[in-house]
Every structure is written in structure tokens, then in C-alpha cells.
């Protein structure tokens, strides 16, 4: 569609919709979409015919449906690259399927809250790459620019906030304006009741119970719900990566009930379609199966053209990734938190945090910059879960440390291999909880392995794990080869049929 400049003109033919109910479907609430896609109802066949005749003037030179059917799905652009344009009201992302339903549900609820004065809490579930952050920003822009209401985007993670701040600052947005849009989850400990029309919480699973080093406040979820007429929580409970991660659907509902906030949570507020990983839902399921989070139907692979490779040498992985980064500075190395932050206490350029076989050496990205994900000279630094969750790249190279290993039958975890400077498993030494430790370690790697839109390169410190993953890749590659051969045969047959 994009490469061949195929023009698409949408419409809806509601052949059983009665004239007496036209006013309901032409409500101003739907004006934006009806202007883009006109509606034709019962007994309006002549109008529909004229609409078609206006755009389909003559037979195309090629079979357009065949071209579309055999086109490739392309990954969406990174949110951080489109943010500035979105803030100006431009439509950088086309929401589809359940994204549109979630978006409209939120806006409808905000309007209803203004009319009735009632409090609402909306819970949006969605896995990695399902567009949670995109929908959240689209909602933010609409509420502040079109509805002229007071709203803020909230996230515990500082990494995306810093990147967003930097991108908008380059476009001459004032610091106070940006700071008032993107807030930390601990900003509402003293907020008055209903002082905001809407608070949009991204990565809600990462919320803490208390705020800051001195454990200020009572409960971040309660504070956010108290402070806003409409509180929206985008959550994926499978992305809990520390023992302090307090956000859960159960806790959100509990706090909403405490304040008498009406809860909206159903299948209509579920995001499932994959917009990262080259649009492959199967890739995320494949990763779940690969690292032992759960058994899935994607043991032998996934549909879609996604570049995934396992390397024996970390240097080879880094150089292959560097080639991708030279294209547009959108490739980064990531690692599980198995390596102490040694460089925190030294300025010696010869000291490194991560040292692997064959002389591989690298430093964590913690020092010197808050915008590592977009800096032009940060490729050789390695990001961790705390500086990458909520962000995305074209390609990622993931170093899997010794906290994940293969025992000959299954993928296992070893929390003792985590760095002593890692705070994600805090409290589990005095009160061991093997199941929680395993969940956190595997969730961490799932997040890292799903940050790439086009590809993921992997190096495992545990040689047995690396060999196991390579065997899984052989199964995947064989399946893709067989599918490609099958597809080629089908395409030839279709072309012959069309020719005949």
C-alpha cells in the first residue's frame, strides 16, 4: 500500500440500519471518523454506488487485491520519534482494532465524567508492543488540546520521560510545559481530590506502594485515583521486574472501590495486536516458550519476517548490531542485571562493568546521560531493564547473563548470579520466594527480548542455553523455509490461474 501508492477510501455500508436511528450514529461523538469514512444505510444503495463510481473510475493496471495480500507488514515507527509531531495534533499512528475501541472508550468516559461529576478508573491490559504508550499519548493530546482539560502522563520509569523531554525540548517546547505533562508516579502524595481531569498512567505494573527513599505517602495507586476524576492505568502484569513493583489489577480495583470510582475493565479494554517485533504476536509467544515463561503454540516459530539470531561470540553480536546502528542510530545493546556497576565509583576509562569471553568489555549506560536511548555516541554502552522499559529500538542485542541457564531439559533461573548492586530482588534473601525470583528474572529478559521492532540478536553466557536457543532457531528457520517454499508454489499457481 505504501510503496506502490495505493489509495484507500473507506466507507461503511450498514445495509440494515434504519433511517429513524440515523441521529444516533451521526452523533457528534463520531464526527471525526464519519468525516473520514462516510456511512451508507438501508435504501441508500444509489448513494453508495455514486461514492464507488467517484473513486473507482477505471480498471487498475494490476490486481490491487493480489498486491495487498502479498505485501509485508512493516513495524510502526518508534513513539519517541513521532512524539513532537503528535503533540501538534498530527496523526502519526493509525490506531486499529482494539486500539480504537480503547481510545474511544477513554474519551467517552472523560466526557461523561465532566457531565456527571462521577469518578472513573479505566484499566487497560496489553502485552509488550501492543501500543499502550501510543494510545496513552494520543489520549493525552486529545484531552489537553481538543477537550481543553487538565491531564498528565504518568510513569514510574524516568527513562521514557527523559527521552520525551529531550525530544520536545529540541522542538522548542518550554521546560515548564513539558514538566507539567510528563510526571513521576510519586508526584501525587499531597494532591487534592479531583485536582486533575485525567491522569494517564503508563507501565502501571511498575508503580510502587511508597514514594522515594523515605517512603513518602500511603499508596501511589490510591494517590493517583484520589487526584483525578478519571484515572487510566495501562498495565501488563507479566512485566513486573522488581519486588517493589506494586501495581496490579487487583490493587487498582481495591483502591478505586475505596474512593467510589466506577471501574471500567472488560475485554473491550484489552490490547492484543502486536505493533513491535514486525507485527508478530507469535514472536512474543515464541519468546515466552523459549525462556520457559509458559508453553505456547509457537514452540516451532512464528509468522512474520523478524530477524532473530543467536551468537557464540559477544564481539560478533556487537559488530553485527553496530552495522544496524549505522543506518539510523536505532540499535542498542541490553543486558540482564548480572554485572556490578563498577564504573559508578571511578572515572578511569580503562575500567568496565561487563567483561565476557574473547575480550568483550562494555560499560553500563547509567552515568553521564539520561537520554542514552537516542544519544548519537551511546552505542557501546549497555542498557538494562531500568533504562529501556517503555522504550523501543529497531534492533537490540541482548546479553543473557548467568541468572538464566539451561539444565539439559528446561530453562532455569539462578537469582544468586544477579549483581550485588541490583535492587530488583531486594528482600528475597531474608524472605526467600523462588517463584517470585524466577518470575522477575524471566520477565526481565522477556522485556529486553521484545524491545526490537525489526530484530533481536542474542548472546548467552551459559553455553548450554546458547546451544539450546540455536537448536530452537534451527527449527524456526526450517519452518520458515518450508513456508516460503509453500508460499512460492501458491503464488505461481495463482498467477497461472489469473493468466489462464
Q: Roughly how many Å is the radius of gyration?
A: 25 Å
Average pLDDT, rounded to a whole number, is 87
* Strand coverage percent: 15-25%
The low-confidence parts are 484-500
How many runs of DSSP E, i.e. beta strands?
Answer: 18
Name the structural class.
Answer: alpha/beta
The largest sheet is: 7 strands, parallel
> Percent range for helical residues?
25-40%
User: How far do the termini sit from each other?
Assistant: 26 Å
Please give the count of helices: 16
General shape = globular
Give the key terms.
500 residues, seven-stranded parallel β-sheet, seven-stranded mixed β-sheet, disordered C terminus, alpha/beta, 16 helices
Write the layout of secondary structure elements.
Blueprint: E1 12-14, H1 22-25, H2 31-36, E2 39-41, H3 45-55, H4 64-69, H5 79-87, H6 97-116, E3 120-126, H7 132-146, E4 151-154, H8 158-170, H9 175-179, E5 182-183, E6 196-201, H10 220-227, E7 228-235, H11 249-258, E8 262-264, E9 270-271, H12 281-290, E10 307-311, H13 314-328, E11 331-335, E12 354-355, E13 361-364, E14 381-383, H14 385-388, E15 393-400, E16 404-406, E17 411-413, H15 434-449, E18 452-460, H16 463-499
Parallel strand pairs: 1-2, 3-7, 3-8, 3-9, 4-5, 4-6, 6-7, 10-18, 11-14, 11-15, 13-14, 15-18
Antiparallel strand pairs: 12-13, 16-17
Amino acid at each position: 500500500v505504501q510503496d506502490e501508492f495505493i489509495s484507500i477510501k473507506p466507507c461503511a455500508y450498514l445495509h440494515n440500519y434504519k433511517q429513524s436511528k440515523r441521529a444516533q450514529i451521526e452523533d457528534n461523538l463520531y464526527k471525526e471518523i464519519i468525516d473520514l469514512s462516510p456511512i451508507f444505510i438501508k435504501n441508500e444503495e444509489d448513494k453508495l454506488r455514486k461514492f464507488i463510481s467517484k473513486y473507482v473510475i477505471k480498471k487498475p493496471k494490476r490486481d490491487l487485491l493480489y498486491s495487498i495480500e502479498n505485501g509485508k507488514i512493516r513495524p510502526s515507527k518508534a513513539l519517541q520519534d513521532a512524539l513532537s509531531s503528535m503533540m501538534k495534533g498530527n496523526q502519526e499512528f493509525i490506531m486499529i482494532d482494539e486500539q480504537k475501541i480503547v481510545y474511544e472508550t477513554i474519551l467517552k468516559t472523560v466526557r461523561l465524567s465532566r457531565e456527571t461529576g462521577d469518578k472513573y478508573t479505566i484499566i487497560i491490559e496489553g502485552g509488550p508492543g501492543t501500543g499502550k504508550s501510543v494510545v496513552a499519548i494520543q489520549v493525552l493530546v486529545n484531552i489537553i488540546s481538543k477537550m481543553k482539560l487538565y491531564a498528565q502522563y504518568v510513569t514510574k520509569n524516568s527513562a521514557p520521560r527523559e527521552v520525551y523531554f529531550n525530544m520536545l525540548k529540541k522542538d522548542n517546547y518550554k521546560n515548564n510545559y513539558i514538566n507539567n505533562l510528563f510526571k513521576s508516579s510519586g508526584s501525587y502524595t499531597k494532591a487534592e481530590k479531583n485536582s486533575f481531569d485525567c491522569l494517564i498512567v503508563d507501565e502501571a505494573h511498575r508503580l510502587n506502594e511508597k514514594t522515594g527513599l523515605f517512603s513518602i505517602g500511603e499508596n501511589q495507586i490510591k494517590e493517583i485515583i484520589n487526584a483525578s476524576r478519571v484515572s487510566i492505568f495501562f498495565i501488563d502484569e507479566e512485566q513486573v521486574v522488581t519486588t517493589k513493583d506494586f501495581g496490579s489489577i487487583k490493587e487498582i480495583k481495591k483502591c478505586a472501590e475505596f474512593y467510589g470510582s466506577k471501574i471500567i475493565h472488560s475485554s473491550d479494554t484489552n490490547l492484543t495486536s502486536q505493533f513491535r517485533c514486525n507485527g508478530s504476536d507469535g514472536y512474543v509467544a515464541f519468546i515466552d516458550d523459549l525462556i520457559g515463561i509458559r508453553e505456547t503454540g509457537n514452540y516451532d516459530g512464528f509468522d512474520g519476517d523478524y530477524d532473530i539470531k543467536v551468537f557464540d561470540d559477544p564481539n560478533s553480536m556487537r559488530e553485527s548490531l553496530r552495522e544496524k546502528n549505522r543506518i539510523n542510530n536505532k540499535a542498542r545493546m541490553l543486558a540482564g542485571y548480572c554485572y556490578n556497576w563498577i564504573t559508578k565509583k571511578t572515572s578511569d576509562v580503562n575500567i568496565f562493568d561487563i567483561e565476557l569471553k574473547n575480550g568483550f568489555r562494555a560499560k553500563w549506560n547509567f552515568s553521564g546521560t539520561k537520554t542514552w536511548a537516542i544519544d548519537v555516541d551511546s552505542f557501546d554502552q549497555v542498557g538494562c531493564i531500568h533504562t529501556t522499559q517503555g522504550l523501543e529500538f529497531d534492533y537490540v542485542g541482548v546479553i543473557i547473563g548467568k541468572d538464566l541457564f539451561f539444565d539439559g531439559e528446561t530453562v532455569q533461573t539462578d537469582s544468586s548470579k544477579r549483581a550485588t548492586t541490583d535492587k530488583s530482588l531486594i528482600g528475597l534473601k531474608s524472605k526467600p520466594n523462588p517463584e517470585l525470583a524466577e518470575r522477575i528474572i524471566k520477565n526481565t529478559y522477556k522485556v529486553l527480548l521484545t524491545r526490537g521492532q525489526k530484530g533481536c540478536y542474542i548472546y548467552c553466557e551459559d553455553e548450554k542455553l546458547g546451544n539450546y536457543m540455536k537448536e530452537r532457531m534451527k527449527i524456526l528457520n526450517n519452518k520458515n523455509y518450508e513456508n516460503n517454499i509453500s508460499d512460492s508454489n501458491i503464488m505461481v499457481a495463482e498467477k497461472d490461474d489469473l493468466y489462464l
